[in-house]
Amino acid sequence: MQQIKESITAIWESAWDRGEVEAFDGILHPEYRRISTQSKHVVDAEALKQDILDVRAAFPDLVTTIDSLVVDADGKSAAIFWHTNGTFANDLQGVPATGNKVETRGSNLLTLQDGLVISEQVTWDQTELLADVGVPSLRSAFEAPSDGVVVDDLSGIPGREELKGFNRQFVTGVTVVTTVDDQGKPRGLAANSYVSVSLEPPLVLVCVQKTTSTYSSLFKSTHLGINIMSNEQRDTVGIFASKGDDKFATLDWHTGPNGSPLIDGSAASIEAEIKERFQAKTHTVFIAKVKHSEVAQLEPMVYKAGRFFDGAKLNEL
After folding, report:
1. What is the rounded CA–CA span in Å between residue 50 and residue 76?
2. How far, in Å, CA of 239 to CA of 188, rounded?
3. How far is Cα 111 from Cα 193, in angstroms, rounded to an integer?
4. What is the DSSP letter of 37?
5. Per-residue pLDDT tens for 23-60?
6. How many whole angstroms separate alpha carbon 162 and alpha carbon 147?
7. What CATH code is assigned to 2-138?
8. To which H or E segment does residue 81 belong?
9. Are the folds of 2-138 and 160-305 the same?
10. Is the pLDDT of residue 7 over 90?
11. How far apart, in whole angstroms, are the C-alpha atoms of residue 240 and residue 235?
């Protein structure tokens, strides 16, 4: 039993603390599978190695400590209790690095066959790590892609186009979400994914695609601005839907009490403190608490099926 303990401990430290993932070759069974009890994600040995390398790239100073390692009397199972410390210095799974120190804990239940680990049930994976750095994930963020989407649709061809067709029938307002980057430069993007969550407390929600140029700055910010576009801001929407580097260059704007850019001429603007960031595969859901609001006597713009309309008369703009 002592030999098994020493072998597991040495290999664990080599892989997790120094990135020497090939050390696992000496202890993992060819049919090895790692199962997360939280996300239900299943990986093989090569995927495990890549996960470790990805985590170590994001946390270069990562140090792991095995708090307890217990092997049963017949040598067929073992349990590891551990904790790690590290600095979130580089991006991980599309999540911008925050530079924050983090400590995370977990446990692994190993099943052994002929002295090799054939399966491993873990309470921790990258989902849990992101939660520990303040970025919980919706379970769907780590689901494997399916062959098709089950949609009750008369066309008989379920999938992405049917969902796009459904979305085109939904009438929304038009907002510009704003923040500032590390250098204090204003950033923003057009979005129609704004939702009022509650009035007490005053919470709002906005969903942002991770590939947008504003995403990294928004993710790192403590506050954001949400501007409801008025009928007079059709050109402004075009600016923020583009990939221009300085979208504020030709606009009049001012800052909210906490520094978020608020666009002049909007039908209404709020500044809100970001409280939660939920990972949802290609997007992040931001939930924020409203701290400041401005409402003008201007009619809002309305959007449906790729076209913009006058919010008062519902005439196409």
Report:
1. 26
2. 10
3. 46
4. T
5. 999 899 999 999 988 777 899 999 999 999 999 999 99
6. 15
7. 3.10.450.50
8. strand 77-87
9. no
10. no
11. 9
Answer whether residue 148 shows pLDDT above 50.
no
Global pTM reads 0.70
Cα gap 126→32, rounded to integer Å? 19
* Rounded Cα–Cα distance for residues 258 and 205 (Å): 18
Q: Where are the domains of the chain?
A: 2-138, 160-305
State in Å, rounded, how far the first CA of the chain is from the last one.
76
Structure tokens at 217: 């700055």
Cβ-based neighbour number of residue 285 at 10 Å: 17
Say how many C-beta atoms besides its own lie within 10 A of residue 51's C-beta. Answer: 17
Helices of type H across the chain: 2-18, 45-58, 126-132, 160-168, 215-220, 234-240
Q: How far apart are CA 113 and CA 35, in angstroms?
A: 17
Question: What local confidence, expressed as pLDDT, does residue 152 receive?
Answer: 45
Task: Quote helix, strand, coil % in the chain, to nearest 5.
Answer: 20, 40, 40
| Architecture of the structural domain at 160-305 | Roll (2.30)
